[in-house]
Amino acid sequence: MSAYHPLTIEEAIAIAQGMDGFFPVDANLSCREIGDGNLNLVFHISDNASGKSLIMKQALPYAKVVGESWPLTLDRARIESEKLILEGELAPGLVPVVYRYDPVLALTVMEDLSSHIIMRQGLIAGTRYPLFADHISTFMANTLFFTSDFGMNQQQKKLRVGQFINPELCKITEDLIFDDPYTDSPNNSFDPAIRDAAEALWNDGALHFEVAILREKFLTNAQALLHGDLHTGSIFATPESTKVIDPEFAFYGPMGFDIGAVIANLLLNYAGQGHWIQDGNERAEFRNELLSTIIDVWNGFESKFRALWEQHGTDRLTKAAPGYLDYYLGRVLQDSIGYAGAKMVRRIVGLAHVADIDRIPDDASRERAQRLALAIGTELIRRNRQASSIGVVNDIVITANNS
Amino acid sequence: MSAYHPLTIEEAIAIAQGMDGFFPVDANLSCREIGDGNLNLVFHISDNASGKSLIMKQALPYAKVVGESWPLTLDRARIESEKLILEGELAPGLVPVVYRYDPVLALTVMEDLSSHIIMRQGLIAGTRYPLFADHISTFMANTLFFTSDFGMNQQQKKLRVGQFINPELCKITEDLIFDDPYTDSPNNSFDPAIRDAAEALWNDGALHFEVAILREKFLTNAQALLHGDLHTGSIFATPESTKVIDPEFAFYGPMGFDIGAVIANLLLNYAGQGHWIQDGNERAEFRNELLSTIIDVWNGFESKFRALWEQHGTDRLTKAAPGYLDYYLGRVLQDSIGYAGAKMVRRIVGLAHVADIDRIPDDASRERAQRLALAIGTELIRRNRQASSIGVVNDIVITANNS
Which residues 282-311 on chain B approach chain A with CB closer than 8 angstroms? Predict the structure, then answer.
C-alpha cells in the first residue's frame, strides 16, 4: 500500500486500525466515502461502540469542476496538511486536529466534525451564527499576523514562502477569479437572463483597471500565509463553534484576499436571502445580521491584529514608525473590499457558483439575486481603493438594494 | 578536491587546466588571487602565450564587513551563478559569460573583464560613460520584465521565486539599509562631524514612516527577480561597454530597488564630485551629466519596458486594462526614488560606505559631501510617494545644492 493510489474503503479501514490507540483494538469500524469526488476522496470512519470517529482525506490526481477534468498535483495534500497543522498551532480550536499525514498516499487523517455542518448550508437555512465573527476574526488575525513579517522572524518567513509555493492552485484562482469573468471566456457560466450584465463586465475598462491591480497584488504581494479559499463552504459551523477546513489553496499573498472571501460569501448569502427567507421582517432581520457580522468580522480582525502587533510585533522599524500600522491596516481594509467584490462577481458569471444563489428554483428570484450580487460586487471593486472604513460595505449594499 | 574548501592557487590552476578547450593544452597558466577576501576568493587565471584568461570566483563561508565577520551561506554562489546565467540570456553582452558552476566548491568560472574597471573608480576619476544609461536601462528592463508576471508564465515565476529565496543576504539589506540608519545601532558608522545629522535621522518619525513602507515592499513585493545590489561597485565599465557583476543578493523584490540603486550611486558620486573635480566648470559639467544620466536611465527603462510589454506581455487582464501600465510604471518610479534615497542615506551613516565620499581626504570637503548626500537622500525618501516624474530628482538635487 506504499505507492500512491486511490484508497478503497477496506484500505482506509486498515489504515485507521493501524493508528495505535485511536480506536479500541477490537473495534468494528465502519467507513463511508463522503467526498464529492471532484478533488478528493473523503472517508468517514467510525466505531459505534466507542463513539469515536475520524476523517481521512485523500487528494486525487485531478480536479473536476462542472464536468471538466484536469490533472492536479498531489502536492496540494502536503500544503493542506502542513497549513492545517500550522493553523492548529496559531488558532487552536478553530480547525480540525490533524492526527496523521501520509505524503505518499497524499492522505490527511483528521478530526471528525460531523457535529458541524457546512456554514453555507446553515446560512441558506437561515441559521444564525452569533459567535462566527469573533471566531473567524481570531482565526484570520492569528494566522495572518504570525505568518507575516510583523509576527515572525523575517528570514524564517522567506523559507515558509518557499514551503507554500502553490502554482497550480493559484492558477485556478488567477484564471477563475481575476481573468475569466472580465472577458468572454469559455470557462464562464451564467444564466442567459443576465447576459447583458456579463457583457457589461467584459466591456468595463475602469473595472478592469481595478481588477488588474487586485490581480497583481494576488500575484506578487507575499504579506502572509493565506488560507486561500476562505468561503463559507470551507467552514464547518454550529452556532457555538467554527472550524475552518480545506486550506489546499494556501500560499503567501495579500491578507485582504482571505478577509474579502469571508465578506463576499456573507454578501452572496445576503443576495440569495431574497428567496430563502420568505417572511419580510425575518428576512430583513437576517440580512441586517449578515451586514453587522461583516462589520464585526473586520472590526474584530483589526482590533485583534493591533493587539498582536503591540504584544508580539517583531519588526523594529515598522513598529516604531508613527502611524504606520494605521496606514497598513487601511490598505488591508481596501484590499479586503476589493477582493470581496472580485469573489462575488466570479460566483455569478464565472465557472464555479454558490448554492446560496444558484439553487434558487424560481427564475425571477434567482435573477434578482444575481443582479444584486453583481451590483454589490462591482461597486466593491470600483470603490476599494477609496474605502476608508468598513462602513462602505453597508453603503454599497443599501444603494444596490434601492436601485 | 570534491568537498568544499577554499581553493589554493595551485588548485585553481588545476581546475582551469581541466576545462577542455578553454586554454591551449600545453598552456603555462599564471594565477593571482585578486579578491578583497571579505566574501569571496577571486582568481585571475591567464595564459600569456594565447592571451586567454578567465575569472574563478569562490564563495567563502563567512562575510567580513568593516572588521566584523559572520557566517554566510555558500548557497549564495548558486544564486549568483544561476542569476548570472539568466541575465546572460535576458541581457546578452551586459554580464560576464559563465563558463562553469561547481556547486560543491561554490565556484563560478566566468569571463575575465580585466579590460574594464569598476565603474565607481571610473566615476571618481571623472570618466564619462556616454553609453551607460542605454546599457543599464536595457539590462534592467530586460531582466525585470522577463522575470515578472508580465513577461513570463506566472506559474513558472512562482517556482523561480522559490529558486531565489535568499534569506541571509536579504537580511543584510534589511538591517543595513532599512533599519540601522534610523536608530542608534552599533552597526552604524559615521564621521563624528555629522553626528547631528545622524541623530536627526533617528528622531524623524515622518521619515521612519516612509522607510517603513519601503522596507515592507522590500520584504513582501515579489515583482521581479532583482540583481539586489546594483551599485556602481557591481558594474564593470569602459566608455563603450557595461558589465553587471556580483548578483549574489538576487531575490524576488520590487523593481524600484534595482533602479534606485543605480540612481543612488550616481547621486553619491555627484555629492563626492565637490572634491574630486577641482575645476568649477568641469565639475558642473560632469555633475550635469550625472543628472542627465539619471534621467536617461529612467526614461530608457520606461520606454524599453513599455516596448517589451507591448511585444511580449503575457498577462491578458493587466494588458487589456486601460491605463494600467501607466499606473504600474508610476509606482515603479516612486519606488525607485524612495529606494534611491534609502541607499544614499545608508552609505553616509550606515555600516558600509562608498569611496566616492569616504575617500575624500579633506575633512571639510568630505563633510560637505556627506551632508549633501544626506539632504538629497532624505528628501528622495520623503517625496517618493508624491513623485510623478523623474524630474523630481533634479529638483531635489538643485534645492539641496542651494541650501
Answer: none
Which of B158, B168, B324 is opposite residue A209, by nearest beta carbon?
B324
Q: How confident is the model at residue A77, as a pLDDT? A: 93
Lookup result for grid cell 469542476: A65
Contact A149 B216 (CB under 8 A): yes
Please indicate whether, in this complex, the C-beta atoms of A167 and B158 are within 8 angstroms of each other.
Answer: yes
- Name the E strands within B245-366: 251-253
Alpha carbon B89 to its chain's center: 19
Residue A321 touches partner B, C-beta closer than 8 Å: yes
Facing residue for B208 by CB, picked from A221, A222, A317: A317
What ipTM does this complex have? Answer: 0.95
Residue A80, number of CB atoms within 10 A of its CB = 25
**Cα three-residue angle B220-B81-B43, rounded to 5 degrees:** 130
A284: CB partners within 8 A, 6+ apart: none
Element containing residue B214 per DSSP (H, E): helix B205-220
CA A62 from centre of chain = 20
Cα three-residue angle B307-B311-B313, rounded to 5 degrees: 100
> Which uninterrupted H or E stretch holds B168?
helix B167-176
Which three three-digit cell numbers place residue A170? 493559484
Q: Which residues contact A42 (CB under 8 A, 6 or more apart)?
A: A33, A34, A35, A55, A56, A57, A58
Q: Which residues have a Cβ under 8 Å from the Cβ of B238 and sit 6 or more positions away?
A: B115, B116, B117
pLDDT of residue A70: 77
Q: How far apart are CA B399 and CA A366, in angstroms?
A: 63
Residue B390 is given by DSSP the state T
What is the count of residue pairs from A and B with beta carbons less than 8 Å apart?
A: 124
Residue-wise pLDDT for A91-135, tens only, equals 999 999 999 999 999 999 999 999 999 999 999 999 999 999 999
Strand, helix or coil for residue A6: coil
DSSP, collapsed to helix, strand or coil, labels residue B210 as helix
Measured from the Cβ of residue B175, the count of other Cβ atoms closer than 10 Å reads 18
Q: How many CB atoms lie within 10 A of CB B287?
A: 18
| Residues on chain B touching A317 (C-beta within 8 angstroms) | 178-179, 182-183, 208, 211-212, 215
Are A127 and A279 spatial neighbours (Cβ–Cβ below 8 Å)?
no
Cell numbers at residue B275, please?
572634491
Give the pLDDT score at A39: 84
Q: How close A298 gets to chain B, by Cα (Å)?
A: 22
- List A residues 122-161 in contact with B (Cβ-Cβ < 8 A): 149, 154-156, 158-159, 161
The residue written with cell numbers 487589456 in the block is: B320
CA distance B182 to B160: 33
Phi-psi region for residue A323, left (φ > 0), alpha (ψ -120 to 50) or beta?
Answer: left
Closest residue by Cα to residue A318 from B217, B253, B333? B217
- pLDDT of A71: 83
Contact flag A316-B223 (C-beta cutoff 8 Å): no
For residues A206 and A199, give the distance between their C-alpha atoms in angstroms, rounded to a whole number: 14
- How many other CB atoms are there within 10 angstroms of residue B41's CB atom? 21
CA distance B348 to B362: 16
Question: What tens digit of pLDDT does each residue of B154-187 get?
Answer: 999 999 999 999 999 999 999 999 999 999 999 9
Report the alpha-carbon distance of residue A364 to residue A271 in Å, rounded.
Answer: 13
Residue B36: the pLDDT is: 75
Q: Which residues of chain B have pLDDT under 50?
A: 1
In tens, the pLDDT along B41-87 reads 999 999 999 999 999 999 998 877 656 677 888 999 999 999 999 99
Low-confidence ranges of chain A (pLDDT < 70): 1-2, 65-68
